[in-house]
Give the backbone structure.
Amino acid sequence: MTTDVPFPAPGREIQTLDVLSDDQAAAVLDLLGEATRADGRPAVSEQGRLQLRGGSREGVRHLLLTLSGTLVGYAQLEDTDPVEAPAAELVVHPSYRGQGHGRALGAALLAATGKRLRVWAHGGKSAARHLAQVLGLSLFRELRQLRRGLSPLDIAEPVLPPGVTVRTFVPGQDDAAWLAVNSAAFAHHPEQGALTQRDLDDRKAEPWFDPKGFFLAERDGELIGFHWTKVHAEEQLGEVYVVGIRPDAQGGGLGKALTAIGLRHLAAEGMPTAMLYVDADNKAALSVYERMGFATHEVDLMYRTES
């Protein structure tokens, strides 16, 4: 389907697709790479990048903005949350910004969702904030990226609750149990809690995946918590990718112990800095991480329509 929006420009077209061809996906990844080099951080999340390939994804649509046949803008729309409005991410090639293409993509997203929309602005840059204002969107969520140095590693030896042991993830063997605990731990979280086997398989297929950095906590043979770390080799960053504790095992210090275990692993891998993401309104988690030496590095902002 090809459409235009109320902000026409000569030669501009916006195509909405359920599936991208290999060539289209490669072109989008090239565009994202150019934007990342210009902005210093990705404009589309890891989940969004994974959803570019591998065929149709339920609830996911891709908007390709071309100018005289050249791809200059991209947006991804995901409508999988049973309660919240569809969520989107969008990017315009750095050489084509300031020409109304972002506004055109935003208007196309609003039209596609009946003006019921949430949009991420990664890095919270002023241009993204201005576009949200132009589109009539209001600030809804703030996701903070925290960082701390790992050398020297001034973190006390982790103390596990009584009866708890920790081992590393075994691909295939631990998939179902991990998905169940992840879903329970993040039942309130619209992205993390909805991960499926396909999402896990996508991540296991990524070059960065290393089960040695994926720690599982068990009690009486049952999985009750985990800390999945990630190494960004090019940036020399270790990430507290996700820490989750089964609800009935929360409050006993397991999360702090697992975090310490993961940080020690990242330090042993030679990472000079650790990072993590946490919602600004999660005061309890922010307090824990700040006591562990983390401080805010930058923010991602989500905007939404009022309806």
Notes: DSSP finds eight helices and 13 strands in the chain. The first helix runs from residue 22 to 39.
